[in-house]
User: Fold this.
Amino acid sequence: MAVNVLVVDDSGFFLRRLTEILNAHPELNVVGTATNGREAVEKVEHLKPDVITMDYEMPVMDGITAVQHIMKNRPTPILMFSSLTHEGARVTLNALEAGAVDFLPKNFEDISKQASQLQKILQQKVLDVSRGHVRGRAAAPAPTARKPAAPKSSVTTAKPTVAKPQVEAPVQPVRRTPPAPARRRPYKLVAIGTSTGGPVALQEVLTKLPANFPYPMVLIQHMPAAFTGPFAQRLNSQCRIQVKEAQDGDMLKPGLAILAPGGKQMMVDKGGRIKILPGDDRLNYKPCVDVTFGSAAKSFPGDVLAIVLTGMGSDGKEGARMLKQGGSSVWAQDEESCVIYGMPMAVARANLADRELSLTAIGEALSKGGA
Assistant:
């Protein structure tokens, strides 16, 4: 059965081009278009699409307001199109918080300079979004415990890199593992990896943590270079712990969460120092969860708590395997609370997860010291 798509944009050229690309796939069918947010809200009720692609800046009603209405009245997977700028990052993060599932650059050259590759990426992204779990607007976590404004880290200017799509395997039942016994010694590091649905998931987890959280943290979120700086700043303003975008030479500290910069790779050495390396074209993701998890496994064998949250594909599985071989602990988000049950599923199916927890339970367990 074809996935029915509603395309929303005030640019006639963009509407026609995206419609042509999507309709070229046998499993996709554009059932309608809209040129502003109000028209989109009305057509969602009438056409009942499986997926919506949404622009932000439109007349009559902007994209974020439209997302809010749609998620309140008829929750539907929404893919936002955004510019890869600081303002584009702010808008996209607002859209994700309002209920959008994922995003892509609106400038097609930022996705791929090859027409055939561009077509495949756009088609696959819409198919992937159609498989996502949709939450109504009320389910989005509200910011809590804001702390006074503090100087934020600078925004990286590295060239944006868009990950190559990975086809998600059909969801199969996983063998649940019994809860791990309470840990008797403190962790030296908490490492969290995530992708699609991750910005809201990280917000949900990190806002639960107290200001005196006893462990250092590293965060790996699949995200373009222009977005990770603003995202770290947003988390820092919402959380009681400190959050910053990683810079080469940063030191791990209790109560500090360091976010991997987009377009690059982040590693941790034995002395607790962050190393930022150029992105490697041989890797699908920049940053890559496996790279950071693998470095943590070598630097702190048996002393890491790794958590794999919602996301497409299987990034994090091999890093989790290395961590488990060294005696560290691995948690995976459960299927019900994931936007996309891909990365956590890969870890669970490989029997690498000590615990499978809901998003809410992960934040609560971490706030109690990770027991």
